[in-house]
Amino acid sequence: MSLARSAWCAVLAVIAAGAAAPLAAQEGDEPIDRVVAVVGSSAITYTQLQEEFYSLYSARGLRPPTDPAVVRREMRNLLDSLINSELLYQEALKDTSIVVTPVEVNDAVDETMRSTRQRVNSELEFQAELRRSGFLGIDDFRRWLAEQQARELMRRRKREKLLTDRVVSPVAPTEREVREFYDSRRDLLPPQPPTASLKQLVIRPVPSQAAKQRAQALADSIANEIRNGADFAVAARRFSHDVASAQRGGDLDWFRRGVMVRPFEEVAFSLKRGTVSNPVETVFGYHIIQVQQIQPTEVKARHILIMPDLDSTDIARARALADSLRALVVAGASFDSLQVLYHDPSEEREAVGAIIDSLGPVYGAAINSVPDGGVTEVFALANEGGAPPKFAIVRVMERRPAGPAPYDQLRERIRQVLGESMGWQKYFDELRRKVHIEIRDP
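Structure (tokenized):
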């Protein structure tokens, strides 16, 4: 295979990944191949190594590095990977329990051909590129693909068998190894958008005592009507202020403990099937609950929510409270302590590493000019369905600019991946002691 064919194979990898990068060999390069490693009786060529190098960066949507030291390091790492891949293939060939049928290979080839052709403008262009890259035509390319797919299927079966038989198992990496793994690959990580870690204190307007009494009286009368034969679903659609569930006749579907607010949950998990509860007060209002089905760890229930009316005085009182709490925070009061006393429990307390653009325009505008450790002005949170607004104060704990994901965010995932990789490396190290391997300068 020439270097031109190698470049085309890399382009195919890019096409399949939906990325693009200039991978063709530079003008004047000689189409000369050479052996860079010998594994048993098999050779790994520079062409194979070049394909892996270009495909690795192309699949990530990155340009290959030009620094000779970086290129050399990456080439050496990739050569180790190719040696391990060849070792695994040779072990799969020895295992008589592993079988790959021609039908499986053809199916894999067909899928690769189909996905590749979809990303080329026309069939004529596809065939022309194949010829320019050293293939005699589609049949020649299919034969090459079939060989690659057959080898990969064999390796995959052997890999699965080794894991199933627990021949290969993860190794626990040290914290230093996890950190070194991150540092060595940081430049290869896809860029992350700007993020921020936030704490918020949300104040919900509280209705007057008279409004609460009216709401409770209405909830009582609805509950009595249902006990006297009124249809629960009809009443929910007519009276419930929970718009989403009202459209379903009050249906909340199945839920476990810890999902609903505590007063609601305590009653729901104590009711007998079919029983209609007395009105249950929560921060949302008054709920009439009926449990329809019961299982050991969850219940299926429906409810009708009656919310007390709020007037402009109630909203103004909530805003004034929010303003006074912000003043306390600015003066040095504990944000966490004020959260415990005043925060609306139906709202999130904090967000760690939230993508700023995903927070929405209201939060984005509020935190835009606030430095790390600072607090926003009080701002209104518009509620769906025309419900009265809540008022929020946000403390910006930390901002992270666009760039690679931070170490603390990836630590546990790296620990898992590295542990699995180290388990495999232990297996390959044992194989290398049994097989003749000769590595030449890549």
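The first strand starts at residue 35 and ends at 39. The radius of gyration is 32 Å.
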